[in-house]
Amino acid sequence: MDDWSKRRGAGRVALALAVLTLTACTGKPAGRPHDVTSSSISAPSLQERCGVDVEGVRSRVITTATQQLYGVEVGRGTRGVVLVHGSGSGGLCNWAAELEWLRDAGLYVLAYDQACVGESSCADPLEARQDLRAAVAELKRQGAVSVIAVGASAGAPLTIELAADTRSGAAAVVALSPVGSAGSGTPRIPLLIAVDPDDTSIDLPVLRTVRDSAPDLVKLEVLRRSGHAQELLYDDGQTGESAFRAIMLAFVSRHGGSRG
Question: Structure pTM?
Fold first, then answer.
């Protein structure tokens, strides 16, 4: 299971510990996949879906051409952020610990379960990029003027690929510890990639090739002793804010327009 949020360490806040307990230690289901014949999906609360709670979080259903995706949103305003999870049953729960401080940074945040994960339908799991475009469009429909997609682990190559998609609707993208393929195509919008060079799940030479393909748009942050995926946002994978988190928030601010 690639639920990399489970590796954040015992020093994380109680919110993250609750997510770890849910996905690794208890028998409580992290959600159920829906088959192709489902006409609608449920929209449980974040507490029901992940076993944790964040003030002001709202559940919603995102409808695409082939899917219904379960998501949660928090905050409001013109600067939107879509969070893309990695593999494993945890789904959007892997982002639960980040929702509050992203909201407090003045962002309108949407996290969603990808197809066949959690409460989302399972009609077409191969349309992940279309689903991400739909999530970006949903935030814009709700009032966000510019939207940045942030992917972690196995979800990060999807955001890199989105950077080359002229129909994405995204203003910029962030990729934390991309696993596997680095996506295809030359980035057309600003892209921030962050990796720990000691992370054996990433292919640093390939990511340097991505950077070199569009050096004016792509920034590659090579961080040491930082961990994987969401761990890069914390000091030694624990509770403190990492130096990279400030870099990422500055990137979002720079490419996300004025604060709403």
Answer: 0.85
Q: How far is CA 239 from CA 12, 18, 26, 55, 233, in A?
A: 5, 14, 23, 19, 9
Nearest-angstrom CA–CA distance, 73 and 143 = 13
Question: Closest by alpha carbon to 150, among 203, 104, 94?
Answer: 94
Amino acid at 3: D
Condensed to tens digits (0 to 9), the pLDDT of residues 229-238 reads 999 999 875 6
Cβ atoms of residues 72 and 156 within 8 Å: no
Q: Which tens digits make up the pLDDT trace of 91-113?
A: 999 999 999 999 999 999 999 99
Query: How many Å apart are CA 111 and CA 95, to the nearest integer?
Result: 7
The residue whose two tokens read 């219904």 is: 68
Give the distance, in angstroms, between the CA of residue 14 and the centroid of all CA atoms in the same chain: 20
CB atoms within 10 A of CB 118: 26
39: its two tokens: 């006409």
Which residue type is seen at 218? V
The CATH number of 4-31+45-255 is which of 3.90.1720.10, 3.40.50.1820, 3.40.50.300, 3.40.30.10? 3.40.50.1820
User: Higher pLDDT residue, 246 or 166?
Assistant: 246
Domain boundaries in the chain?
4-31+45-255
